[in-house]
Write a structure and sequence with these properties.
The structure is a homotetramer of 215-residue chains.
Chain A (H helix, E strand, L loop, with lengths): L6 H22 L2 H8 L3 H7 L3 H23 L6 H18 L1 H11 L10 H22 L9 H20 L1 H11 L7 H16 L3 H5 L1
Helix pairs in contact in A: 1-2, 1-4, 1-6, 4-5, 4-6, 5-6, 5-8, 5-10, 6-8, 7-8, 8-9
Chain B binds a DNA duplex (21 and 21 nucleotides) through helix 3.
DNA sequence: AATGAATGAGAATTCATTCAT
DNA sequence: TATGAATGAATTCTCATTCAT
């Protein structure tokens, strides 16, 4: 594969794709419009990417990569689960504010229009996080700080579920609307309480209770 | 006016629509294919539904209605939050097993392809649940069984988030794959532990801890 | 062919057809709408008329017949060409006021959408008028009142042309607009002067001039 | 921006459109068939024209433009009304022979199928002619060569009516058939006498008569 | 005989992809 | 090598016509 495109140009093209895919979804996004938005010709797009789907995948990967980078910067070697969670939530909120279309793209990926692309990709995207979260929770549990009868993998899974929904809530139309129904305002107007309450929720979920201590 | 379209036929058509929309998404689903799948001509589709979008909406509404019916049957006048949650999870698991395409269709609705249809629809779909959950949690909190400093609306929201993700996990390709990454197997093979662990998670999240009791 | 339809019902159906065809033209008129407008089912339409085109023809014929009746009532045994013309114009103006859609239908017939239907039909529609006008002009000429070197057939033809355009001007959108461009107002607002001026024009055209008399 | 569509190709496409629209009318003409006739793909049609209607308008404008060019070439600075008329008729006859489909297309425009497009278009098409004819007749009248009591605008209108019908007679099926009924042969076979007789008719209509002179 | 629901061919339009320049 | 014009398959939607009730 040729690589005459400068790094910045490539960046620009992928960002154009992410924006368009995030706005209209895989099916309703036009390759011609992406090219126009990126200031290149369709020909170039097809020179570097086999077809629409592979370009979509490239966009997904870029947006995931960026999220991963953001997160890993923020949460280096964090000790305690809840502190870790707090930083994570903060970082996600920031990321959602700065790159909503990246999250929208990610949501696009999960929808059925992209069904054929899923195999393998999920592994690549979710694998790191899954292992990371499971690991931390497992460790915290072994430290005796989480109820002994919890399945660390499933608890990690639930934890991640809450974080995924958090992102969709900030970035995707339907979920934003749904938040408004629950809370009467845009999620952006409640950044702090969302973070605090989610932390409480997690704190409660992850902390040993009186009776657990007794035993 | 004769109504050649029997109740069952209508049912069949909507199910065909739900299946196709769930499989390919709003944009990539073809009305002709839906008609073929339902064993009717396109003409009929357009006799009963203004256009593709209104048919899509009819499908969404049907699937929502059916879920609502299932849930409201299961959880009448339930007293305790956790018992309520248990029934809810059970009912959702059953529903996911029986009508996966309904959930897939719901997920489609949340993706950007259906953006123009969202306003108002979210209210209709999420409104009931939102009020129900908020109400129960509020009550439970006033009974002194949930930490006093929790925002019942946000706790209800997190609760619903977990249930939404549960459904997607059972029914939508990407989420299934993701679950496998966390747990190494299909969610269907873990029905019981998923239910039990989610209940534990919720129980912990919603139950007062030692220090809370002191005050 | 069955004929259980009462005379009035048939009338109503054809009038519905004339109205619709006059409004939207042959191609854009829907048989279903005609049926609805006439208060019958499409089935009936197709019981009495082979297909859309034959129904269109039936409508054309009815509207022509009615015009013919109106004219022949008005202009019985008229002696002088110009008096004859005056009555004719008056009758046409009245007809246009009362049955604009009939004229519109007639115009539809002349347009290419109805190309295959033309053969034979023109004869049926124009034959009477053509012979009538040619006859009168021929007679008037033989009476020495029209220049000897005029071809009565062509003069009759020009005469009819002016009357056709008169009708279109009163009834058909484009021609009405065109009239406004010439005169700055709707033809309906100028009934009298249109009639008078057309008569002057015809009078001049048909009357011998000084030099002709000399010879 | 490259312009692969050469001037000639564009010409060809518009001519294909004019031919098809002239043959079948706006509603029954298919864009795919036009493309096929022009030897291009539909895509090109839609690249250069918004939709069917704007393409139709482009065709109309082209055909009008060409007629205008033909006429304005022929009749520069003509002095006398009748000489002017003679040149005009000659030019129209030639134009009808060379571009019958242009006239057919023009006739299509006047039919109800194109109703929504009419506003404004009529002004554009008829305005020039209307002013030109009215002007010449007005002038001629002021020179004392047309009866003083004639309304120049209406006389110009009748004049134009005769010329419009002349064109339809040469080019449109129904009108051709109608001519045959009057004269027993095709208009093409009577070019000269049609022109001569129409000139006589106009000459008579526009020339002062004995009694007018007296006063 | 009348009804009007159902059929399905056909038309407009879009857009991923190709390829001549 | 880049361009973007051209292609044409696929999609939505309409409506003349049929035919079961």
């Amino acid at each position: 594969m040729l690589r005459r495109l400068t790094e910045e140009k490539l960046e620009e093209i992928l960002e154009a794709g992410i924006a368009e895919f995030g706005e209209h979804g895989l099916a309703k996004t036009s390759m011609n419009k992406i090219a126009a938005r990126a200031g290149i010709s369709v020909g170039v797009l097809y020179k570097y990417y086999e077809d629409k789907e592979s370009f979509f995948l490239a966009c997904v990967k870029k947006s995931i990569l960026e999220l991963d980078r953001t997160l890993s910067e923020t949460i280096q070697k964090e000790d305690k689960l809840l502190q870790y969670a707090e930083r994570l939530i903060e970082a996600l909120q920031r990321h959602c504010r700065e790159h909503p279309s990246h999250i929208r793209m990610y949501h696009e990926l999960t929808s059925s229009g992209a069904a054929e692309l899923v195999p393998g990709l999920a592994q690549e995207i979710e694998g790191v996080t899954a292992r990371l979260y499971s690991g931390i929770i497992d460790r915290t549990q072994r430290e005796g700080k989480i109820r002994r009868d919890a399945d660390p993998k499933l608890f990690a899974f639930f934890f991640d579920n809450l974080l995924m929904m958090l992102q969709f809530t900030y970035c995707c139309g339907y979920y934003k609307e749904r938040f408004r129904i629950y809370c009467g305002t845009e999620p952006e107007n409640m950044d702090t309480s969302i973070r605090k309450e989610l932390l409480k929720f997690l704190e409660s979920a992850f902390t040993l209770k009186a009776k657990d201590i007794t035993h």
